[in-house]
């Protein structure tokens, strides 16, 4: 039995909360799945979740909007570089036109044999919409935003990671996680993420020995982590033990994220990976099914800090 079953979510540190919400819900047509706050540290920061209407695993993009003067990340090497989402075959032209019409510069390119539309989040993080015919997931429809089934984003395709040492990253992804190496070319390396439904999801590794080291702190303009779905706690703990037993000891204990449980491991290529599984209640733990993502909610352990956190959060209407 595979200990990884597709992606769970991808997480970024962005900039303004309202521009982040508008980008994902209005431009890309994703749905608000959860509005809460960063569970770590003491600084009030939103944690926003976007994806399919029901918040299905492998569709979730999450962000920490972090508009703080002088606190901004540096994009570089030894760091996750791009967020990739799958779109139906033939939908690239629609998205190129739509994004440019919204004032977001977008262009079509091909890499590793896949056609894709490349553009950037307002905070600068590169995004790619990749045409994928190996994807049985239903497209995310948002009629109010003019996005129908023939063009809607299907969910996570994967992410690219920039590294200086391709060999060390190759060993980590194939031995520690483990993923399946599909390609090793002048463009870089491609690894398939196991998925029992046969959905094509990948990690692409690009060699970059020229850029400066990217930052790993929680600061705007950078990708924070890539979360793989272990399905349940048993698989998570087995995979954690396997990774630590190989000597990758930069791995966390399990953390309670209210809707899922997580362990984090820093790869030798710099990218932070998460091992995650959704708890039985999932997103409906504090909002009714069908009504998720519509209110600002706090975990039980922040009950005595709600007023303080609300007062410190950036103003946003989320409309």
Q: What features would you highlight for this structure?
A:
319 residues; alpha+beta; 2,3-Dihydroxybiphenyl 1,2-Dioxygenase, domain 1; 8-stranded mixed sheet; 16 strands; 33% strand
Describe how the helices and strands are arranged:
Blueprint: E1 7-14, H1 17-27, E2 31-37, E3 46-51, E4 60-65, E5 79-87, H2 92-101, E6 107-111, E7 114-120, E8 126-131, E9 155-163, H3 166-176, E10 180-185, E11 188-192, E12 202-207, E13 222-229, H4 233-245, E14 255-256, E15 260-266, E16 272-278, H5 306-312
Parallel strand pairs: 1-4, 5-8, 9-12, 13-16
Antiparallel strand pairs: 1-13, 2-3, 3-4, 5-9, 6-7, 7-8, 10-11, 11-12, 14-15, 15-16
Protein name: Glyoxalase
Organism: Aureimonas ureilytica
InterPro entries: Extradiol_RC_dioxygenase, Glyas_Bleomycin-R_OHBP_Dase, VOC_core
Give structural notes.
The chain is 16% helix and 33% strand. By secondary structure, it is α+β, with helices and mostly antiparallel strands. The strands form two sheets. An eight-stranded mixed sheet has the order 2-3-4-1-13-16-15-14. It starts with 6 loop residues before the first strand and ends in a 7-residue tail after the last helix. Residues 6-132, 155-278 form the VOC domain.
Quick rundown:
A hairpin with a 3-residue loop joins strand 14 (255-256) and strand 15. This protein is an alpha+beta fold. It has five helices and 16 strands.
Number of helices: 5
Using DSSP, what is the number of strands? 16
Taking pLDDT < 50 over at least 5 consecutive residues as the criterion, the unreliable ranges are none
- Form type: globular
Protein name: Glyoxalase
Domain VOC: 6-132, 155-278
InterPro entries: Extradiol_RC_dioxygenase, Glyas_Bleomycin-R_OHBP_Dase, VOC_core
